[in-house]
Amino acid sequence: MLHRIRNRIAAQHLLWKSRRAYVVETDLGPLLVMPGVLDPVATKVGAWLAHAMAHEVQVAERWVDMGCGTGVVGLAMASAGAEVVCADIDPACVRNARANGAARGLSLSVVESDLFDALDRLTTSDGVVYNAPFWQGDGRGVAFGRAMYAGADFEAIRRYRAAALGFGARRTLIALSEAAPNHAGALAAFGPHRRLVRERVAREWLVLLEAEASRDPA
Question: How far apart are CA 65 and CA 50, in angstroms?
């Protein structure tokens, strides 16, 4: 219950903060956060994931930044030499990622898409990474509900894994926080995996996981 109250307070603070555009500092330099878009520095996971993925991708690999938000993760991968498609279901996030890409002169393709619905699997096959919602519940009526809540049974995470494996990406990655009250449930929803990175950021353990399709039940 305490976790839920704390999360609601944090979400309301972010909602108040995001009523107008502002700039935050990241490893990539200044990053624009447009109204209604989740701040990747304030929430920790996005900025941390961007740093982790800059060391995970290889030059000329083709990656998808799923649920891209401001585009910070896609920008980090593109800066490391990868070819990147940023995807988000929220038009505000699409506009924000495009603006941040243009400001850096990086070649980013940004697409409004519900998971992989609007993507061409032939152009983005090396890997996909998702800064996933990892709080259990539907999040309706809560600030940034869709970005923070994965559903009663973590449906957002389950859908992502199934869609990513069906899309044919060589690697399927997800970022989660162990601070979530039902982290075990989020892990179970993602299914068989191996841990790539685990790091403590501001008293919160964050993890980057890779799906292991070969261990999925028949």
Answer: 10
Taking only the tens place, the pLDDT of each residue in 168-189 is 889 999 999 999 999 999 999 9
Residue 147 · residue 131 · CB < 8 Å: no
Residues 6+ away with beta carbon under 8 Å from 155: 189
Considering only CA atoms, which of 59, 66, 78 is closest in space to residue 147?
Answer: 66
Q: Are 90 and 66 in contact (CB under 8 A)?
A: no
Report the amino acid identity of residue 73.
V
Distance (Å, whole) CA 180 – CA 205: 10
Q: What CATH number is associated with residue 86?
A: 3.40.50.150
Beta-carbon contacts of 113 under 8 Å, excluding residues fewer than 6 positions away, are: 87, 88, 89, 119
CB 209 within 8 Å of CB 186: no
Closest CA to 191 of 206, 170, 176: 176
CB atoms within 10 A of CB 172: 26
pLDDT range class, residue 140, cuts 50, 70, 90:
confident
- What single string gives the DSSP state of each residue in 90-135? -HHHHHHHHHHHHHHT--EEEEE-STTTT--TTT--SEEEEE---E
Domain assignment of residue 180, given as a range: 2-215
pLDDT exceeding 90 applies to what percent of the chain? 76
Find, among 161, 141, 38, the residue nearest to 88 by Cα.
38
| Number of compact structural domains in the chain | 1
